[in-house]
Amino acid sequence: MSIPKAICTLLFLLLAFHLKAQSDTANIKSYAEQVMIRVNLDTNIENYTFSEGKYKNAGKTVFSINNKVKTSVSLDYKIISATLSFAPNFLQGNDTEKLKGSSSYTDFSFRLFPKRFIQNLYYKNVRGFYLENMKDLFPEWQEGRDPYMQFPDLRVQSFGGSTSYILNKNFSAKSIYTQGEWQTKSSGSWVPFLDYDVTIFRNTIDGIKSKETQYKIGGNIGYFYNWVIGKNVNISPYLALGVGGKFSHYHNVLDTNASENAQYVTIRMEGGLHIGYNTDRFLFGGKMNFSAYAYDQKNNQTIENNNLYGLLYIGYRFAPPRVVKNTYDKIQKKIPVL
């Protein structure tokens, strides 16, 4: 499914669910006193699209990573959720180094859920890209036979996060984000949130090193709905829109005079659909998510970072070991927000 079709589907679902939510109430079952471990598998695709020109005449250059399958392990207890993600080469789809080169992917995220706030922090490190749309730029190029143009030293590091607030106190965001709660009656909520990050691009071409640092901040508003269709099954779509600003600094490492500062207005859209099955011990489900992010670099030039991917997860809850509970209780006395 393309991103435009996914957006239309979500808009239809959210409109129907929003009208229904006006008469819904919510009961929330918490699993905060249990430890939960989840294993996730998703088809993460990290790419950057550079467009030059207008409309149908715009030329595009698409840089993508080789790793197409990512696995992650999540650990939840109380209001804390932590996830470590990586893309192992032995998974199918991550073994095409001869044609596309080698890529590495590591992502660590940390979430807190104090009351109706959601605080997310993450670190992401991606290295090794290839030119995905070779056929558009080189008509004689043949897929499966000819290698892609590779950029093994292109590295992207991101440090960032988001701060969200749930407007409806009867809506459980944890039931969608981490499955740390279960909502027994359908409900939805508007969720305003800020997103912010620092991204560092590093590359080396013909011995010449370059570095660009980008700072981004944006304001967003999204609508989330948790539709409970049975005792153990829920369907949860969401859609969010946002605008913000990006500030970048570029310089050539070998030439300190070759530097440039710029500011941009950014536009962001993201959404997804979650389907889950939940019991007090076992849980599993799937998600389809997309994000579209773009900004004008200069006249008739645009850079986009688009993702469309699916995710499968399976998890298990159990009583916390005494050492975990005692350690958390000691920390909570010093940091009451936990």
Question: Any chance you could write out the topology, listing elements then pairs?
Answer:
Layout: H1 3-21, E1 28-30, E2 35-42, E3 47-52, E4 59-65, E5 70-77, E6 80-86, H2 97-100, E7 104-112, E8 117-131, H3 134-137, E9 150-165, H4 174-177, E10 181-183, E11 187-205, E12 208-228, E13 233-252, E14 255-278, E15 282-298, E16 301-318, H5 322-334
Antiparallel strand pairs: 1-10, 2-5, 2-16, 3-4, 3-16, 4-8, 5-6, 6-7, 7-8, 8-9, 9-11, 11-12, 12-13, 13-14, 14-15, 15-16
Structure notes:
With 338 residues, the protein is mostly beta strands. The protein has helices spanning 3-21, 97-100, 134-137, 174-177, 322-334; strands spanning 28-30, 35-42, 47-52, 59-65, 70-77, 80-86, 104-112, 117-131, 150-165, 181-183, 187-205, 208-228, 233-252, 255-278, 282-298, 301-318. The strands form 2 sheets. Strands 2, 3, 4, 5, 6, 7, 8, 9, 11, 12, 13, 14, 15 and 16 form a 14-stranded antiparallel sheet that branches. Strands 1-10 form a two-stranded antiparallel sheet. It is globular and about 60 Å long. The model is unreliable at 17-26 (pLDDT under 50).
